[in-house]
Amino acid sequence: MALRPEDLNAVGALCAEGRGGEALALCGRFIAEHPDHPHGYHMRALARVLLGERRLALPDRDRVVALRPREPGAFMARAEDHLRLGDFAAAAADLDRAETLDDGHYWPMIPLLRGHCRARLGRFDEALADCARVPEDYLLPGFGAAAPGSAPQLRAEIATLRAPRA
Predict the structure, then answer these.
(1) SS3 content of the chain, % helix, strand, coil (to 5)
(2) DSSP string covering 80-119, please?
(3) In angstroms, rounded to a whole number, what is the distance separating the alpha carbons of residues 62 and 19?
(4) C-alpha–C-alpha distance, residues 155 and 131, integer Å
(5) Which of 90, 143, 148, 159 has a CA-to-CA distance to 79 between 20 and 30 Å?
(6) C-beta of residue 154 within 8 angstroms of C-beta of residue 112
(7) What is residue 26's DSSP assignment?
(8) How confident is the model at residue 165, as a pLDDT?
(9) For residue 82, what are the CA distances in angstroms to 58, 59, 85, 86, 100?
(10) List of residues 6+ apart from 20 with CB closer than 8 A
(11) Distances in Å between the alpha carbon of 108 and those of 4, 61, 103, 126, 133?
(12) Cα 24 to Cα 9: distance, rounded to the nearest angstrom
């Protein structure tokens, strides 16, 4: 019986149970049956991330972007992986692309994360411009120490990075 996209709902649980190989195999079977369906690649990338193999997720993220070049979420997912890997230039480029496609769903997440990337790249004026677009009461959880979760935290990061080193 052919796999359906819903069959991939088990991927997260399989990874959490320490059955990452099974999760990857399930995604591989779905991709073999549906090579032009982005969900298989997305879920295999997610499995890689959950298994601590974020760099191995990037080819699947690239495939999702190739299959859905007008979907801002495809660029957002790849940007998150780049950001967590410390490739701030690639993350900022994906955030730029996502912003051109976004209907407002990812605002103000985009300028907050892009501001962080630009700050890490030493592009402080651009980072501050992004930060100015983020409402003061906006909070983005889930990144922990990987990225600031609010405009005040981003401003603090910019000030710290901009400060002369002793």
Answers:
(1) 70, 0, 30
(2) HHHHHHT-HHHHHHHHHHHHHH--STTTTHHHHHHHHHHH
(3) 25
(4) 7
(5) 159
(6) yes
(7) H
(8) 75
(9) 8, 12, 5, 6, 19
(10) 14, 47, 50, 51
(11) 33, 22, 12, 15, 7
(12) 12
Structure tokens at 64: 């999702």
Of 27, 74, 72, nearest to 47 by C-alpha is 27
Mean pLDDT by 10 residues, the chain (166 residues): 91 94 96 96 96 95 98 97 96 98 96 98 97 96 89 96 82
**Is 72 in contact with 114 (CB distance < 8 Å)?**
no
Q: Cis link prior to 5 (omega < 30° from 0)?
A: no
- By residue count, the chain amounts to 166
pTM here is 0.92
- Cα–Cα distance for residue pair 95/101, rounded to 1 Å: 10
Tokens standing for 129? 């411009």
Which three-class secondary structure state does DSSP give residue 148? coil
